[in-house]
Automatic annotation (TrEMBL):
Protein name: HAD superfamily hydrolase
Species assigned in the record: Fructobacillus ficulneus
Annotated keywords: Hydrolase
Pfam families: Hydrolase (PF00702)
SUPFAM superfamilies cross-referenced by the UniProt entry: HAD-like
Keyword Membrane attached: no
Listed Gene3D superfamilies: HAD superfamily/HAD-like
Length: 187
C-alpha cells in the first residue's frame, strides 16, 4: 500500500484512552508521547486535570511516560516541569533518533513501548522507522503552532491516499478496541 509508513498501528481518540489495564494487557512498559496537541494543548502549558490523573495512574502502575518532542530543550523542560515525566527534545521526528535514544537509555524492547502522537508525518513515521508500534490520536485542539500547518496539509492528502478504498481511519474509544480491530482486520 502506498504510504504505509504513515499508517498508524492503532488509532484512539485521545492519549487518555490508553488505560493502565489495557496497556498492561499488551505488555507495555512505557508510553512515549509527543508533546504539543497530544499530551498538552500547545496553548495550555498547565495541562488538564484529566492529564494529571492519567499520568498519576500510569506512574502508580509502573508504566513510564516519556515525552519525545521536536521542540527545543527549554520549551519541553518548561512544559513538562510539573508533570514528573522524562523527556527528550530536538528529536527531529520523523527521524527515529529520539525514540531510539529513549529505548537505549531505559533498556526497553521495541514491543514494550508505544509512540503516541497527533501527526502521521512526524510521530507515526518516526515510530515506524524506529520499529515501535504507533498510536495516532486526535489533536487536542484544532489550532496548531504556526510551524505545523504544512504537516497538517500534507497529512490530509496522505489520509486520502491511504484510506481511499474500503478502508477508513477509525477512532477507537479505547486501546483494547483498537487492538481488537487490528487483530480482526489484520492491518
Amino acid at each position: 500500500m502506498a504510504l504505509n509508513f504513515l499508517k498508524p498501528t492503532y488509532s484512539v481518540e485521545s492519549v487518555y484512552d490508553l488505560s493502565v489495564a489495557e496497556l498492561k494487557a499488551q505488555g507495555i512498559k512505557a508510553v512515549l508521547t509527543d508533546l504539543d496537541n497530544t499530551l498538552l494543548a500547545w496553548n495550555n502549558p498547565d495541562g488538564t486535570p484529566e492529564l494529571h490523573q492519567w499520568l498519576s495512574e500510569l506512574k502508580s502502575a509502573g508504566i513510564e511516560v516519556v515525552v519525545v518532542s521536536n521542540n527545543t530543550w527549554d520549551r519541553v523542560e518548561k512544559a513538562v516541569s510539573d508533570l514528573d515525566v522524562e523527556y527528550t527534545a530536538w528529536s527531529l521526528k520523523p527521524l527515529p533518533r529520539g525514540i531510539l535514544k529513549v529505548l537505549k537509555q531505559n533498556q526497553w524492547q521495541k514491543d514494550e513501548v508505544l509512540m503516541v502522537g497527533d501527526q502521521m508525518l512526524t510521530d507515526v513515521w518516526a515510530a515506524h522507522l524506529a520499529g515501535v508500534p504507533s498510536v495516532l490520536v486526535k489533536q487536542l485542539i484544532e489550532s496548531d503552532m504556526w510551524q505545523t500547518w504544512l504537516n497538517r496539509s500534507l497529512e490530509k492528502l496522505a489520509k486520502k491516499i491511504i484510506y481511499r478504498k474500503n478502508e477508513t481511519l477509525i477512532w477507537h474509544k479505547s486501546f483494547a478496541d483498537a487492538v481488537k480491530a487490528k487483530e480482526i482486520n489484520g492491518n
